[in-house]
Specification:
The complex is a heterodimer of chains A (179) and B (191). Chain A has 179 residues and is mainly α. Chain A has 8 helices and 1 strand, in the order H-H-H-H-E-H-H-H-H. Chain A is globular and about 70 Å long. With 191 residues, chain B is of the alpha+beta class. In chain B, the strands form 3 sheets. In chain B, strands 3, 6, 7 and 10 form a 4-stranded antiparallel beta sheet that branches. The longest helix of chain B is centred in the first third of the chain and has 12 residues. Classes of the chains: A mainly alpha (179), B alpha+beta (191). At the A-B interface, helix 1, helix 2, helix 4, strand 1 and helix 5 of A face helix 1, strand 1 and helix 2 of B. Strand 1 of chain A pairs antiparallel with strand 1 of chain B, so a sheet runs across the interface.
Chain lengths: 179, 191
Amino acid sequence: MHDPPRDGRRERFGEFFSANHDAVLGYLLRRTGSSHDAADLLADTFLIAWRRLDEVPAGDQTRPWLYGVARRVLANHRRGEGRRHALTDRLRSELAESAPLEPAPDSTAAKVFHELPEQDRELLSLVAWEELDTAQIATTLGCSRNAVRIRLHRARKRFTKLLEASNRSTVTTKAEGSR
Amino acid sequence: MKKHDLDAVTRELAPTVTLTISQDAWTELSDGITATEASPAVDKRRAPARPRLVLVAAASLLIVGAIAAAVVSRPGQDQPQALSVTEMGDKLIVRVIDPTADPKRYNAEFKKLGLNIKVKAVAVSPPFVGTMISFSGRNAHDMGQLHRLEPGEKCNGTLNPRSSSAGRPSPERRTGTPRRRPPSRASPWQA
């Protein structure tokens, strides 16, 4: 016999799982560069969402909330606290077969981007890669919208400065080379 | 570089993700997750609602008490409370006990009370020293509307009960008036 509240919870989980699994997996793939790790981190993220189902916000805040969980799961993973899930076996093997990730071209901008502090990169990525607005980023990072605006402004400023410095040095090098 | 240009540059740096995952794989994972033990129902008892601070009806309003006297840091001394907080219904009345305290002390005491209020010191011209001044606003233009409160005048926007749910301490309750005159610095109360 089914337990109605549990069925209701499963239904709710199923709805946001279906609506967000691709996006969360994309988020993790872009940050880890590894389909194996991304599969396990995805399972960790949704396991947490299942356990904290009552805290998962509705509407357009669900996805940024999941990104926030994925971000923390990723941080734990980088500290070596990852684990392998048997329940992702199939997902992992499908990901391995399909080679889902094609790295970005190794451009000057990419090098400059990687020189930025992690916090700046994450903010700029959440805007450009995940296409989140300020309120959604605030949910992901667990801070105020105002803090997001300020940090984003500073991150853009730093990125611009590094890009301009890099362009200047490229021009100088070319000029010296042509002498 | 313009914002959208910069975002376009960043967008170009995203590794390309192509997902071709079967529905069966997703279902297997979803079923596997929901088969695990969910957490016990969340305790829905809520923390008692915090009384609103009188000075904090609107988050971005600023109220300036030109308590002006020196905002002097006196490290090492035994520091008594800089603020006194009295609960009045659903409001809090905050009195400045030590108008010469460093804003850090006010902030620390607000934090201790669990109130998200930041106090910072700004310079004011000498005529404002020793008076209550106020401004409220959300942008740079509004911030230029600093004016001295006339006796009995209510602080615009924030403290007027008709325009917000907050009240304000009666003038005689305000203890922010300095005992000394210059140096000319004021402590604005930023909510």
